[in-house]
Amino acid sequence: MKTGESDRRSRRLPVNATDRRALADWRPADPAVVAEAVRLKEAALVDFGMESSAIAGWIYSKCAHQIPTTAIDTAAVMASGDGACLLLFNPEFFVELGLDGVKFVLFHEARHLIQRHLFTEPELREDPVFDIAIESTINHVALARLGRDALPVVDGKATGIDPREVFQRYHADLTEQGLNPFGYQDFIRTDMGCYTELRRMKHPPSPPPVCVHEILEELQGELADGETIERIGNEVLANVLLAGKRGVRSAREELLDLIERTEGASDRLSKLWGDLGAGMIRGRTQRTRRVDWWQRWLVDVLASKLTEGERLIYPKKRGAVLAALGQDPTLSRRGPERQRVVAIAVDASGSMPPPVVDWIASLVGQLDGVQAHWLSFDAQVVPFAPGDPLVGGGGTSFQAVADFLEGRAPSVRTGEPFDDPLDAVIMVTDGYAPHITPAEPDKWIWLITEHGDDWPDHHTPQMACHKVRTGDR
């Protein structure tokens, strides 16, 4: 928290915050204490990755350096100038906290990092009342998500700001002024709402000189790289969106909660949620320059259709954290090399925007070892090459595509049946045609254009399906 001329600025670290070896070697704690602290930290991260917090799990998956050090009193998550993300934690502090306390502190730190990325306006970052609002809402969410009744206690003292105590002070202050205070749930519902209500107080609360969870003030110049924080934040949110779309309930719930808590903060933030495609998960469209959510989704689903062993896979790191992807989703190969076969069937009715076809062409062209079969279809199927005009215009038949790819109907150009074993079929269409059940529905991926019929998402058996949105909104 920013507290102006508080005594925080005098709390320098005894070693250079960018020197990881010096941090680890500074007056090291007893090896047994370090081992127990590391065990607690790992157990907390496993829980985040598997259940409690998809956002925290993804953030800590990007912390390449997790350093036990007595050079810091508590814990901090920081972005460094070299583009890395670090977790520093005092092993003695973690052992005192125990597992539930460690989970609380790490959850709090993760939310601080992501919300600092979301709220970049300088006037907010420098306002101590906004810090109180963020502390309150984060701790409220942490208490609820982690199933706690109270903040962790060390040496008989709570380790942070209790949102219920802040609310009591707010309620008493406004009542004394003759104003109508909100109830607790309305007070704590959004970050900006909490901040607005605290500003109504005659005597707003001030942050304590040192918050045990907050990034140390004196490290801002050395470690808090805004560009890295923004990149990490966007990557984390994009991957949590993917998890939510795939049906990971905890990821969906946590992301929806975060969107609601930042609602109305700024036009920039609304634009960010739109750019990430957050409207897909909350059921309404955000304003956006360009939505590439469906592109991320397609790569993700395509990877899941190409099974492990001899085929394409996602590189995964299970256990402490979810898979750590530093950039857009990518595919890798495991096992014996062979050509993977993907069919891309594009509806020739003209409803598919050219940029979508171009992007699919570039995607498949970049996948090492993939043999792509391009097809246009209406009532019949015609092979084509990317860049060729689509041939068609008559009625639309998905069954014609299935009959061709499953070897029951020959090619209209060569007269030969299709006999390659397929790893995936990508259908690009508006969805308006009689429904079908392919022989291998788990291999079919449907990209439905705007205002199209996403029936494959509700079909039995269900097939991978996504609404495609392109262009300026």
TrEMBL record:
Protein name according to UniProt: Metallopeptidase domain-containing protein
Protein source organism: Catenulispora yoronensis
Superkingdom per UniProt: Bacteria
